Amino acid sequence: MTIEQRSLPDPLIGSDGRKATTAEQWSGVRRPEILQLFRDHVYGREPVGRPEQIGFHVETKEGFMDGAAIRKRVDIRFEGPGGTGAFRLLLFVPANAAKPAPAFLLINNRGAEVADAERTAVSPFWPADYIVSRGYAAAVFQTEELDPDHDDGFENGVHGIFDPAAKPRSPHAWGTIAAWAWGACRAMDYLETDSDIDPNRVAVIGHSRGGKTALWAGAIDPRFAMVVGNNSGCTGAALSRGKRGETIRDINARFPHWFCETYKSFGGRESELPVDQHMLLSLIAPRALYVSSATEDRWADPESEFLSVIAAEPVYRLFGSEGLGAASLPPADTPVFGGGIGYHIRTGKHNMELSDWRHFIDFADRSM
Ligand code: GCU
User: Fold this and answer.
1) CA distances from 95 to 61, 127, 194, 207, 234 (A)
2) Ligand 1 pocket: which of 114, 244, 246, 297 to mutate (most atoms <8 Å of CB)?
3) Would the CB of 234 count as within 6 Å of ligand 1?
4) Is 112 in contact with 142 (CB distance < 8 Å)?
5) Within the chain, which residues score under 50 in pLDDT?
6) What are the tens digits of pLDDT across the range 272-320?
7) N or C: which end of the chain has fewer CB within 10 A?
8) Boundaries of every domain in the chain
9) SS3 150
10) Mutate which of 209, 230, 244, 246 to test ligand 1's pocket (most atoms within 8 Å of Cβ)?
């Protein structure tokens, strides 16, 4: 289905019918409106930003990756009305490259084995050694340390800590994707304090459900200079109107805890949703955005991921950026690097591989 056939809401036209014609108008009026629409209808409203009670406990050790990296293990501890919580940020900082270093923060929805702190196991899903060799710090945390990935009635994790008494829950209350994104923002709170890291050059990245999370984190937190959504699909980068593969109804049936309650009422009613996912991408403008697809990832729907990028471009153009600068889906394994947006479609399955990381870092080298 073409872009025109999808009848998308216009990211530039506000609820009062006025069209933003300058970056200032868009940032001042339309952007906050879109953000609120996503909070109300899709990801839910997080009850807290940076908590008053938050602390970082850092343990540093040298001599990783044949001396190329310093390891930091940072316990991020916080407290809310429902008790205390913590998650660990694992960080490898290049020992020999210029500092402060730029960084990639991975929201890891896979097992902890892909993020081995000892480096006895190495994984192309999080190729920390390669990231460090390119002069970037590699940071990672596990989503499930913030909030479990099953429907637990929002009793555990940060939901239980920050809105324990909220029963019945508001239909707009945050879901699990928003809880993980909140964690990425708290990781950023730490990174801002680390003199080895350049806080103005931190990219947030995730794959699949982690990719949806990275895009939402990038939308709510402008401190992220670059945002990467890999194979993020439904309620990630992919447009919902006209989407093939997974739909809003499918995702809410299988993962009822991911989004806010209101979102469930839009199953089969995509055209009535006041937003579509190109508007999520537009919230990242004018910062660097990278969307990546895979040829066999039909459930995510590469075409809907690509067209979403195209439909977000008018907002990049308001900022004087060309956006992606390609009108049609590029051939497989051929990245397109535009002024503000990068895109590629990799041959193969739903996954994140070393070749994907190469393209992300090449784009970061010129954009962040
Ligand atoms: C399921 C889900 C997708 C999600 C994926 C993943 O397939 O339907 O929306 O992206 O899991 O996180 O791997």
Assistant:
1) 11, 17, 14, 27, 39
2) 246
3) yes
4) yes
5) none
6) 999 999 999 999 999 999 999 999 999 999 999 999 999 999 999 999 9
7) N
8) 35-367
9) coil
10) 209
What single DSSP character describes residue 179? Answer: H
Mind giving me the DSSP string for 266-296?
TTT-GGGSS--HHHHHHTTTTSEEEEEEETT
| Ligand 1 atom nearest residue 234's Cα | 9
- Give the position of tokens 């050790």: 61
SS3 365: helix
The owner of tokens 């049609």 is: 328
CB of residue 208 inside a 6 A radius of ligand 1: yes
CA 72–ligand 1 middle distance (angstroms): 30
Backbone φ/ψ region at 348: left (φ over 0), alpha (ψ -120 to 50), beta: left
**What span, in angstroms and rounded, lies between the C-alpha atoms of 335 and 221?**
26
> Which residue, judged by its Cα, is nearest atom 7 of ligand 1?
299
**Cα 310 to middle of ligand 1, angstroms:** 23
Tokens of 174: 């945050």
Does the annotation count 350 as an active-site position? yes
Model pTM?
0.98
CATH of domain 35-367: 3.40.50.1820
Render pLDDT for 88-128 as a digit per residue (tens, 0 to 9): 999 999 999 889 999 999 999 999 999 999 999 999 999 99
Long-range Cβ contacts of 53-56 (<8 Å, 24+ apart): 53/78, 53/79, 53/80, 54/78, 54/79, 54/186, 54/189, 56/190, 56/193
